[in-house]
Amino acid sequence: MELTQLEYFLEVARTEHLTRAAESLSITQPALSHSIAKLEDELGVPLFERKGRNLHINRYGTMFAKRVEKILQEVKQSKQELEEYANPDSGTIHLAYLNILGVDLIPNLVRKYQLANPKITFELTQGDKGTIVEQVENGLSDLLITSERPVSDHYEWIPIQSMPLYLVVYADHPLAERSSISLKEITGEPFVALKHNCSLRDSLLTRVHHMNFTLSTSYDAEDLPTVAGFVSAGLGVSVLPKTAGLILNGLHWIEIQEEGWKWEVGLHLKKDRFLSPAAQQFVSYIKQREINTEYNK
C-alpha cells in the first residue's frame, strides 16, 4: 500500500467519478482504475459500488476513508514538522558534550549562537566520554563537543579552543610557591588520576609515557571536578585545565615547563552522517570561529 494509492482513493471517494478524479489528479483514467482495483485487492473488500464510470462509496469505503484522512493528515503534519525541524533558521540542533563543558563553554556557545539565530533550538545531552560518544554512534545526537580528537578517519575534528594544562597542588604542598615546574619533578608524588571514561586521561598517560617517567596514582576519580576536589583536600597532585568548575579554594596552579601540555576542545562529527541544514549551519559557524585560548572569550 502506497501513499499515492490512498490519495487516489480519497479523490475518487470525493468525486465518485473515475474520469473527473483522474483529471483532478493529472493521471489517466485506466491508471486510476488500476490503482483502486489494486488497493481493493490488498484490502480484500470492495470500496465502491460501480455503475459505469460512476462509483458510489460503500460502507467499507466509508470506514476506510475516515482512517485514510487521518493518516494523510498525520503525514502532512509530520512533513511540515520535519521541514521546520531541519530549517537552517528555525530547526533543532542535537548536541552532546562532556559534563565539564556544561559549566561555561556550552552555555556561552549556545547563547551566542541563539543571539544571531533566535529561532534555533538545541537538544543537549551531557555525560562522560563513553556516554556522549554512544549518543553520536546511535544517531541520537548529530554533533559532539569533547576534548579528545577522533582516531578514526570516519570522523572530522574541528578545534574550538585550546587551553594550557597546569600542575595543581593543595595549599600546604611544598611546591605551592612554585610558579613553574617540570613534571619530572613530581615523580613519586601521590597523583589523583582519572578513570577510563574521561577523555583527558589517555592524553595525560601518552604525554607522561613520552617523557619517560611514571606517576604514583593515589586515587582514580570519575571526572575533572572530583580530581580538583581531591587535590584541594590534600589527597595528591594532578594536572588540570584552569577552567570554570575546577577553580576551587585551596588549589595552586603551577605552569608546566614542557611544551605541548594543552587541553584542546573541539567539535567531533561523523563524515558520513546526514546533517540537517540547521546542524550544517552550526558546523559552519564553528569552523569560522577563531580558536579561543580562554573559556570566557
State the share of residues found in helices, binned by percent. 25-40%
CATH class of the largest domain: Alpha Beta
DSSP strand count: 12
Low-confidence stretches: 293-297
What structural class do helix, strand and pairing data support?
A: alpha/beta
Report how far the terminal alpha carbons are from each other.
56 Å
Radius of gyration, taken over Cα atoms and rounded to an integer in Å: 31 Å
Order of helices and strands: HHHEEHEHEHEEEEHEHEEEH
Q: In this structure, how is the largest beta sheet organized?
A: 8 strands, mixed
Average pLDDT rating: 86
Question: Overview of this structure, please?
Answer:
InterPro entries: HTH-type_LysR_regulators, LysR_HTH_N, LysR_subst-bd, WH-like_DNA-bd_sf, WH_DNA-bd_sf. Pfam families: HTH_1, LysR_substrate. This is LysR family transcriptional regulator. With 297 residues, this protein is α/β, with parallel strands linked by helices. It has 3 domains: 3-86, Arc Repressor Mutant, subunit A (Orthogonal Bundle); 92-160 and 264-288, D-Maltodextrin-Binding Protein, domain 2; 164-263, D-Maltodextrin-Binding Protein, domain 2 (3-Layer(aba) Sandwich). 40% of the residues lie in helices and 25% in strands. The chain has 9 helices and 12 strands. The strands form 3 sheets. Strands 3, 4, 5, 6, 7, 10, 11 and 12 form an 8-stranded mixed beta sheet that branches. Strands 1-2 form a two-stranded antiparallel ribbon. α1 crosses α2. The two termini are 56 Å apart. 28% of the residues are buried. Mean pLDDT is 86; it is low at 293-297.
